[in-house]
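Final report, Chapter 2: Outcomes

The project's central promise was a pipeline that accepts a single protein chain and returns its three-dimensional structure in a standardized token representation, suitable for archiving and comparison. That pipeline is now operational. To close this chapter, we reproduce one record exactly as it appears in the project archive, with the input sequence first and the structure output second.
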Amino acid sequence: MIRHLSILLLLGLSLFIQAQTSNDYIDRYSKIAISEMERTGIPASIKLGQGILESGWGKSTLARKANNHFGIKCHSDWRGKKYYLEDDDYDDNGKLIKSCFRVYKNADASYIAHSEFLRDPKKRFRYGFLFDLDPRDYKAWARGLKSAGYATSPTYAEKLIRVIEQNELYRFDRMTTTEIDFGEDQEFERLSISRLNDVKVTLANNAETPQQIAQRTNTTLRRILKYNENLSSANQKLPKDYRVFLQAKRNNFRGKKKWHYVQKGQTLFDISQLYAVKLSKLQKKNRIPKNREPAVGERIKIRGWFKVSKKDKPKLRTLAEMEALPEEEEPQPETPIEIEIPISSDDDEDFGEELVPELPEEEFIPEEEDEFEEPEVPTTDPLDPPVINEPDSTSPDIPNSDDPEVGVYYTVKKGDTLFSISRRYGTTVEGIKRLNNLSDNTISVGQRLRVF
């Protein structure tokens, strides 16, 4: 009798510990799963479910030793740290050999890498169709992953659906980052790495330092300071949403825009941040001396190599206007405050499964672009950044440059949701709600929303 009671007590304790472990894992990673859902469109339930299956609730050797919760292997383009473990690779003689897996600095980086793995343009033929599915249909996503060959197990989809339903992970597909309790006085640390002008970039959290950004983005402090003109020390505190580039800015803007019109209070450095174009190149191609700023309303060339003519070079601000500008020693957030939709290229080898590879400095710097004028090519590519702050009297959604609330606006159409609009513009539901003072996710047809 006592023996049976002991067995029941041990069984009950084991189930309690297992349930506690499950809750701890879900509580810990639901935040990053929802954040990545808002950024990329991958359902939070799918991401959490796959993390649970692949990592054994975070207890697998790969998760503990390499912070790799999704079993992502090295492949030929991975230059970060590596961890070797027997999995499913065999040599020519049929002998099981150790597989190479990626090592991440933290588990959140692994969650982000999982998104980039599925979004990799080189794998679009395999996983691209998933992003056309309903983001709330976790069953379709699970079966789609299996049919795309994500896992070799013939019952992978059923296992994934079972984990989602047993733990009610589908509830996170209907949540936003604003609806989660992050604890008292604790701001959610956004780890997302996106792309602007084909340059990797992240947004700083409030009072975050270059040293902290280097740690959470898996890069080095030396690169952070080198690629960002106004950053000079490891402990410099940055304002919220300040853009920090993880690669060198480009010589030219690669979108369809060729000119930018200067807004009130805007500096050439602000424009450099806005388009991820080097400040020195903007100065050179627009014939603007160092320590001088273009006048309000002047157009600045952002694309094409050759300098503007002496006749067309922008007028400069007067000394009095220069003195009225904010000091540049301390970085200031630019407008728009939200990061643009990630721009990818099929031939860009630096985009995909890895976040920021540990490369030698000389290999990491983007190549110089050809020194010739780029032709104006009309495009309707939805991945081009939206036209920002360019005067256009024919467009009701772009405000006049005299409007103090200059930004990018969108008029709600039938079938739109905040989530679909945020995906279209590469921003977040939280960002749109904040810009429009919305207390919930309710919107109506014809409503004019600011998205940047």
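Archive annotation: Residues 2-40 form the longest helix (39 residues).
This record, like all others produced under the grant, will remain available to the consortium after the project formally closes.
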